[in-house]
Write a structure and sequence with these properties.
about 160 residues; alpha/beta; four-stranded mixed beta sheet; 8 strands; globular
């Protein structure tokens, strides 16, 4: 059995060798790219595009969109699934913004762009202002700000029950 303690203490590579990227499986890669570009204002990387792949980049992060054929190309054909408004959420991508007003602004854009609001904007028990939404293909995403509007109440959550 591998020594996990040793592997945590001794990383395989320097942290600066990695750039974060999150991939979303979807039916319409172009529509998904346009939805997130309109919300985030990130740049398209056209040289990385293919008929089944698109990618946006912003703030040192890449958000990629993989078409259905990618399941098979990645050895995941038996895990392919179609999302609906009631599908379980297996992953959620979160975008952090500077202020609560940006969260409110994005809340107005999401439905106009073909997405739907799941919850929010709302104050969290940990003092952030948040919006949880579905993109047009029912992937879950979240926008969160470290500030909350004046007068908003931070809820109390009892985790003991």
């Amino acid at each position: 059995m591998p020594d996990l303690k040793r592997s945590v203490d001794t990383p395989m590579a320097s942290a600066d060798k990695f750039q974060p990227m999150h991939n979303i499986f979807c039916d319409d890669v172009e529509k998904q790219k346009q939805f997130y570009a309109a919300i985030l204002g990130w740049d398209d990387i056209p040289e990385a595009s293919s008929p089944i792949y698109r990618v946006l980049q912003g703030n040192g992060f890449q958000l990629a969109f993989n078409g259905v054929p990618a399941y098979e190309l990645l050895g995941l054909k038996d895990r392919e699934r179609r999302r609906t408004s009631t599908s379980s959420a297996g992953t959620m991508v979160t975008f952090v913004v500077e202020d609560w007003a940006t969260v409110d602004e994005i809340a107005h854009k999401v439905p106009e762009l073909g997405g739907s609001i799941v919850k929010g904007p709302f104050a969290t028990y940990y003092g952030q202002w948040q919006l949880v939404f579905n993109d047009p293909e029912f992937n879950i995403a979240r926008i969160t700000a470290m500030t909350i509007p004046e007068g908003a109440e931070i809820p109390v959550v009892n985790f003991d029950t």
